[in-house]
Amino acid sequence: MANWSAADWAGVIGACAWVPIIISFIKSRLTKPKLNIILHREAELGYTTFGPIFNVSMALSAENAESLVNKIEIDIQGPNQEKHRFAWDWFEERFYDIEYTEIGSTPVTKRQNAVAIKVAKEGIAERKIGYSGFVNGGTRLM
């Protein structure tokens, strides 16, 4: 080490400059996201010709890293202890409201089949999610 030239020392210092970047990259790959789900206080529960439905507005928030949600299921237990599992079927995103003087406010929304929702890190995704009761062939669970 006593025989090192200025170029050798410059190379060591340059290599050390990459250490924080490498540590940050490894940390980002090992950090798992924490997903918080905030439900609206009201939900819609009913039955259609296609079977039981459950609709609720919710907000999804991701901490530590962005998150990709590709499946949501909810278990509901009735007063007679009968349990049903509802799988997400569609979700609706509300963009804004248009105000009309004659009829009031009209929301502008987009409804699509539930495939996936990407939640940004430290972001929030608000959606109304519709659930269908036909999970596992429509049979009652538990």
Query: What is the number of beta strands?
Result: 8
For the sheet with most strands, the description reads: 6 strands, antiparallel
The level of helicity is 10-25%
Quick check: average pLDDT? 85
Shape: elongated
Number of domains: 2
SSE series? HHEEEEEEEE
| Distance linking N and C termini | 71 Å
Number of helical segments?
A: 2
Assign the structural class, choosing from mainly alpha, mainly beta, alpha/beta, alpha+beta, or little secondary structure. alpha+beta
Indicate the low-confidence ranges by residue numbers.
138-142
Strand content: over 45%
Radius of gyration based on Cα positions: 25 Å
Transmembrane segments: 6-26
Keywords: Membrane, Transmembrane, Transmembrane helix
Folded structure, characterized:
It is a single chain. With 142 residues, the protein is an alpha+beta fold. It folds into 2 domains: 30 residues; 99 residues, no CATH class. Helix content is 16%, strand content 54%. It is built from 2 helices and 8 strands, in the order H-H-E-E-E-E-E-E-E-E. Strands 1, 2, 4, 5, 6 and 8 form a 6-stranded antiparallel sheet that branches. The longest helix has 12 residues. The radius of gyration is 25 Å and the shape is elongated. The C terminus is likely disordered. Keywords: Membrane, Transmembrane, Transmembrane helix.
